[in-house]
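Technical annex, item 7. During the second reporting period the consortium partners agreed on a shared format for inverse folding records so that results from different sites could be compared directly. Each record opens with the tokenized structure and is followed by the designed sequence. A conforming record, contributed by the partner at site C, is shown below for reference.
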């Protein structure tokens, strides 16, 4: 899956760098050949960004984590590496949470679930299911760490569903001075700190509000006329508990509508026609040319929440693998205009695109959430790994969507001017003050934070 060509990206694009495959050593006659040690380069999941931090630490307990944090200088937490930019990098030390992956406790009375920060949704979900519990929503893939997802306001879809940090009840943060701070919802810093981009400390554990388990059935409809999506956007996006539109922007069509209905509460859409789209008669992948075996079951077959809310199955490659991602949020009322604005750029976009996805995210009250104080619609782009063209296309989309007040996904590729980010997040100044309070020596700072927040 991984290629050895990398687009070196930061949140603003910088010149490309290429990581070369290990060079084979050609033995010369009568010389003792010492094979060159393989060049170990660590990269993010998509292999488009090579981490610069020379040191990677993988503590196995909260005590070890706390000792490391206290001892190390420059440092940053590393989750499951699914971001597409340099947000998780550090000039010196990355602290991986991969071994902090245990379920700590479940309180049956309150349905509060406490997990170590490196636990992945896909590992937690079956444990919750055994206890008759569920989370309100999941992203397109279950492979990501819970702390990493919360840190960047990762989201799924659904008009009533907030991002994945919205069920947070409390979390423990170890600040660079080694102090453990427990932030509950009542703590004055909680709403500022919940979406923190790794700028406040390393989260050691989190407590989430679970709910009773539920079943979901998902159906896919093909070839929704774009004009219907524009005219009936709210009705279409409200047709299920979680609805996603997938499109390559061509032929005045939305290629696929994925409707995930919560059984028992939703009125399940079962008709053969949905606003002019036709029900798929087989399971499909959002990128129609790929096989559906990596995808969660469709055709209305009911299943537990965690095997239907993500599009991709745990243990299988999510999405395409050979890709770059960008995503932009606009206030919900702008979505029909934005659909049309992006469609007008289809001839530029389409040759370099695997697929776009359009989802809704409910409002929340976190300072750095793209949905802070308003419902938003997320316009996502899974690009082909075309590093020469994609940065320009992202700039094009940012220009086209600027009048609609876009903000980018913190964990994906973007080049929006820091001044605009500051303008669009009214609490940015307060967040920076919080970061300075928790990390006065700037040990958690990296190029991403310096550029976008502190610059
Ligand atoms: C195939 C694919 C599909 C995706 N689908 C979606 C989707 O459906 N919706 C969506 O919104 N996003 C999606 N994403 C983006 C992804 O979910 C986010 O970027 C998320 O942040 C990844 O979590 P991670 O643990 O891999 O984070 P990392 O990339 O490892 O880190 C992200 C940030 O979190 C911080 N962090 C991680 N752990 C901790 C901790 N314990 N304490 C403090 N800070 C921490 C890091 O320092 C960094 O700043 C997708 C990505 C991929 C590759």
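Designed sequence (site C submission):
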């Amino acid at each position: 899956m991984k290629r050895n060509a990398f687009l070196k990206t930061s949140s603003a694009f910088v010149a490309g760098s290429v990581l070369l495959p290990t060079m084979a050593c050609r033995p010369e006659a009568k010389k003792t050949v010492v094979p060159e040690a393989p060049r170990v380069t660590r990269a993010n999941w998509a292999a488009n960004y090579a981490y610069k931090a020379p040191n990677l630490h993988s503590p196995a307990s909260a005590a070890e984590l706390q000792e490391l944090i206290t001892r190390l200088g420059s440092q940053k937490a590393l989750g499951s590496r699914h971001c597409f930019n340099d947000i998780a990098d550090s000039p010196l030390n990355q602290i991986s949470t991969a071994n902090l992956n245990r379920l700590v406790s479940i309180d049956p009375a309150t349905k509060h679930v406490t997990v170590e920060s490196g636990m992945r949704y896909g590992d937690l979900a079956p444990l919750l299911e055994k206890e008759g519990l569920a989370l309100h929503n999941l992203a397109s893939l279950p492979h990501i760490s819970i702390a990493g997802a919360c840190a960047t306001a990762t989201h799924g879809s659904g008009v009533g569903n907030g991002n994945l940090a919205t069920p947070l009840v409390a979390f423990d943060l170890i600040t660079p001075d080694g102090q453990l701070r427990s932030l509950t919802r009542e703590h004055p810093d909680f709403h500022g700190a919940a979406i923190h981009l790794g700028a406040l400390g390393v989260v050691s554990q989190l407590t989430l509000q679970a709910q009773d388990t539920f079943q979901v059935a998902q159906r896919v409809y093909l070839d929704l006329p774009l004009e219907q999506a524009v005219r009936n956007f709210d009705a279409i996006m409200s047709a299920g508990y979680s609805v996603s539109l997938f499109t390559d922007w061509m032929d005045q069509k939305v290629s696929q509508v994925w409707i995930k209905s919560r059984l028992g509460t939703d009125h399940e859409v079962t008709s053969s026609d949905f606003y002019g789209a036709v029900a798929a008669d087989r399971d499909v992948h959002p990128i129609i040319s790929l096989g559906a075996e990596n995808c969660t079951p469709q055709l209305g077959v009911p299943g537990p929440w965690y095997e239907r809310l993500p599009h991709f199955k745990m243990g299988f490659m999510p999405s395409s693998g050979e890709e770059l991602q960008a995503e932009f949020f606009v206030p919900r009322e702008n979505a029909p205009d934005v659909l049309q604005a992006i469609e007008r750029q289809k001839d530029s976009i389409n040759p370099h695109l695997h697929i776009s996805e359009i989802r809704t995210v409910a409002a929340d009250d976190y300072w750095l959430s793209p949905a802070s104080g308003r419902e938003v619609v997320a316009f996502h782009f899974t690009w082909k790994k075309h590093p020469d063209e994609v940065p320009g296309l992202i700039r094009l989309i940012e220009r086209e969507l600027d009048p609609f007040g876009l903000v980018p996904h913190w964990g994906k590729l973007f080049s929006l001017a820091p001044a605009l980010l500051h303008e669009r997040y009214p609490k940015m100044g307060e967040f920076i003050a919080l970061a300075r309070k928790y990390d006065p020596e700037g040990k958690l700072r990296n190029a991403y934070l310096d550029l976008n927040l502190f610059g």
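Residues 103-212+424-454 form a domain with the Uridine Diphospho-n-acetylenolpyruvylglucosamine Reductase; domain 3 fold (CATH 3.30.465.10). The chain has two domains: 103-212+424-454, 215-418. All partners now use this format for quarterly exchanges.
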